[in-house]
Amino acid sequence: MLYDRDFKRWKFSTDRVIETEVYQGMIDEYEEFRRKMLRVDIRDMNHELYGAPKRDENESAGSKIKNAVVTVLVLGAFVCCVLALILKKILLFGILFCSLFLVAGAILAFTGETNPKDTPSRRVRGRIIGVFIMLGAGAILSLILLRERFSQAELLIWMASVAFGLAGLCIMAIAIIDKFSAKIFYKEEIDAKCIGYVRMVDSDSDSDGGPPMTYMMISPVFEYSYEGQRIEAVYDKLQIGDCSDIELGSFTKIRINPNHPEDVLAPKVTSSANFAVLLIFGLIFTLVGSGLAWYSLLGNAKGLAVETSWNNILGEETSETTPPKKTISDATVEENYKEDIEGKPWYCEITTVSDIEDYKGNLLLTFGDDTFEKMLIKNTDALKKGDKIMLFYTVSRETEDQTAAYKCPFVYTFPGDVEYVGSHGAYQP
Question: How far apart are alpha carbons 124 and 185 in whole angstroms?
Fold first, then answer.
């Protein structure tokens, strides 16, 4: 990239090796810079961090209004996303969230710029990421808008399929671009003179929550001519370290992008190990996404239920994930089983199946309560020992003065499927 003499974070020097005192002084200066950033107007942050042009104090009123409107819209959409999530309005949250990412992906796809110091070659990577973000947000937004065509489980599986599949393809595309950037972009090799060195201190936050790791980066400043144009440039990506392996005043061969001759290939590209890891992870993500899509296409997701206490994942109204129980009233029983009841008193009780016998292709049920007669049913329901069932029955006596009574069930159902709302309880002798 072009050597920017005005970018204060780049410290120019003709010393190939720096002394410990100079090194520590640069670290201390960077720590002061970080503290200063807490006091800098956010509108000047890009200038301080990346060397972008300072904001125009004489900006026109129309431009200021436009920027203010865009800022308010973005912040408003973000706040609405948070509120929708808190209020469990998942449909609204999904639409706003995907719309924000769709716009952000489109901007990145057209500009490729993640910071103002990005070179045209490195912006290709940003454009690829932007395209995949835009595709993913657009696909998920389409699924949300067409949610009536899918069950809840199918919708979630398709969303996961899109996210995994596109993430995997994006990782593989980035790995290939990084690995073969020399052949894809930096096609020309020329001689360049080292006229000095730039160093910059930066830091990365610690993944374990500790203090950020501070490190120094360096690049020689190259001077060369290309098609009659004198260029001063540094590596597109500064290298971690504080000493250079190129002598001051020496000539060396560098690779440049002929379409943008200020782009200089850094000597350390993606290693074979890193390339293989990224490729493997990208392939795994892609296979997971493809597998989920195939699983859903085969119709396997239609019978799945989503257990959640939230409202329907993409619906406005609150609904349970399990269907409501059917109700059985006294009138329903007496109307449908009047021939079995024959005008006798009848009762309802939940009991346990203690044994199941095969009887001429049907099932003969024995109950834990031995006052129940055995019950013959068709071999259609998947009953097993220990199941609880709801029995509707009458009571039979051999003589009027006999104290023992036999409960004669005429129909059964599963208490998990239906709810009895009548007044007939268990028989009390």
Answer: 10
Residues listed for the chain: 429
C-alpha atoms less than 13 angstroms from C-alpha of 343 in its C-beta half-sphere: 0
* Tokens, residue 133: 């973000």
Q: Where are the alpha helices (DSSP H) in 51-151?
A: 61-86, 90-111, 120-145
Other CB atoms within 10 Å distance of the CB of residue 303: 8
Residue 130, C-beta contacts closer than 8 angstroms, at least 6 positions apart: 104, 105, 106, 107, 108, 109, 110, 111, 112
| Cα 174 from Cα 104, distance rounded (Å) | 19
CB 184 within 8 A of CB 177: yes
Per-residue pLDDT reduced to its tens digit, 317-355: 444 445 677 888 999 999 999 888 888 899 999 999 998
* Domains of the chain as residue ranges with CATH: 1-53+186-264 (no CATH), 62-115+118-183+270-323 (no CATH), 326-420 (2.40.50)
Say if pTM beats, i.e. exceeds, 0.85: no
Residue 352: beta bridge partners? 388
Q: Is 241 left (phi over 0), alpha (psi -120 to 50) or beta?
A: left
Report CA dihedral (220, 221, 223, 224) to the nearest 10 degrees.
Answer: 60
Residue 388 and residue 391: Cα distance in Å, rounded?
Answer: 10
Q: What is the CA radius of gyration of the chain?
A: 37
Single out the residue of 261, 182, 177 nearest to residue 225, CA to CA: 261
SS3 23: helix
Residues in a beta bridge with 220: 197
Are 201 and 49 in contact by the 8 Å Cβ rule? The answer is no
CB contact at 8 A, 212 and 205: yes
Q: How far from each other are the two terminal CA atoms of the chain, in whole angstroms?
A: 97
> For residues 23 and 42, what is the distance between their CA atoms, to the nearest angstrom?
29
Tell me: the pLDDT tens digits for 74-102? 788 888 888 887 887 878 888 888 888 89
Closest CA to 380 of 361, 399, 397, 398: 361
Q: Which residues contact 209 (CB under 8 A, 6 or more apart)?
A: none
* Phi–psi pair at 222, nearest 5 degrees: -100, 145
